[in-house]
């Protein structure tokens, strides 16, 4: 949803238009003033359209809620449902590592909550009782204003005992003849997405991985949109492989063996997905 961004941009353009009008030649100011006023009338109608569109989004988000809740009650009895859903998504699977699997097998629900008055939203991950974390729900909130992601806020994970998901210990030597020492290092993990981040943060790259992407803020933003617009609304299709990796492999070529043209990606409502800018 980009209503706030469009409204903000149009209001800024109205101000710039007034300044540009002031320096126009006198002979065209009279007809141009009429054109300028007509543009403002059109903008006012557009602002009303955006308000009604936001209200429509909110209306249907409210109606989706009970459907997703009832779906959750049935999904919880299906072993590893959400793990398979995430593994079948190109976007989500890129965040999952081998050491994450024991805890992700306890993932029993994923829900999103859209803010009613702006584009911010939160994704909740619910876990069954397990030997790894105290939390029953881990959340990631994406704070968005005027189509700009300002920050993402994650739940602090309360580990039971040693955290072997986002950290590991390894032996290092000090100098050529130095004693071997044990050092704890960060490693890439799905559970790193629950860190709180902002665009001003230094690059948060696990020290044990040289080839890991250097922009986790943007990557997690993309994952958030993918979860909200694609994965959660269409979880059944990802579980069955109708969407995601298996679908990509089956549909890359047509019956004659020719490469198919890429399709426009849509969100859960069937609309073309919008990208959110970073600050």
TrEMBL record:
It comes from the Eukaryota. One of its GO terms (cellular component) is nucleus. Gene3D superfamilies: 1.20.5.1500, Nucleosome assembly protein. GO terms for biological process: nucleosome assembly. This is Nucleosome assembly protein. Residues 246-279 are annotated as: Disordered. Residues 256-279 have a biased composition (Basic and acidic residues). InterPro entries: NAP-like_sf (IPR037231), NAP_family (IPR002164). Pfam families: NAP. Belongs to the nucleosome assembly protein (NAP) family.
């Amino acid at each position: 949803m980009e209503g706030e961004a469009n409204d903000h941009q149009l209001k800024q353009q109205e101000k710039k238009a007034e300044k540009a009008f002031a320096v126009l030649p006198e002979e065209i100011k009279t007809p141009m003033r009429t054109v300028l006023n007509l543009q403002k009338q059109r903008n006012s109608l557009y602002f009303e359209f955006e308000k009604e569109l936001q209200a429509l989004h909110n209306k249907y988000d409210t109606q989706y809620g009970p459907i997703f809740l009832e779906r959750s009650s049935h999904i919880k009895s299906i072993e590893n449902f959400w793990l398979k859903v995430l593994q079948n998504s190109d976007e989500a699977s890129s965040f999952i590592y081998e050491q994450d699997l024991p805890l992700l097998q306890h993932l029993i629900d994923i829900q999103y909550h859209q803010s009613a008055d702006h584009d911010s939203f939160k994704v909740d991950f619910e876990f069954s009782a397990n030997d790894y974390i105290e939390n029953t729900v881990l959340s990631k909130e994406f704070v968005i204003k005027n189509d700009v992601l300002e920050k993402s806020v994650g739940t602090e994970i309360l580990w039971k005992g040693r955290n072997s998901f986002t950290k590991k210990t390894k032996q290092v030597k000090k100098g050529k003849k130095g004693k071997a020492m044990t050092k704890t290092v960060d490693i890439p993990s799905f559970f790193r997405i629950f860190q709180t981040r902002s665009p001003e943060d230094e690059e948060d790259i696990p020290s044990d991985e040289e080839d890991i992407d250097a922009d986790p803020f943007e990557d997690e933003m993309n994952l958030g949109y993918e979860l909200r617009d694609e994965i959660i609304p269409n979880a059944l299709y990802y579980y069955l492989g109708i969407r995601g990796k298996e679908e990509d492999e089956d549909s890359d070529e047509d019956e004659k063996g020719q490469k198919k043209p890429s399709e426009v990606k849509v969100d859960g409502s069937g609309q073309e997905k919008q990208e959110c800018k970073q600050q």
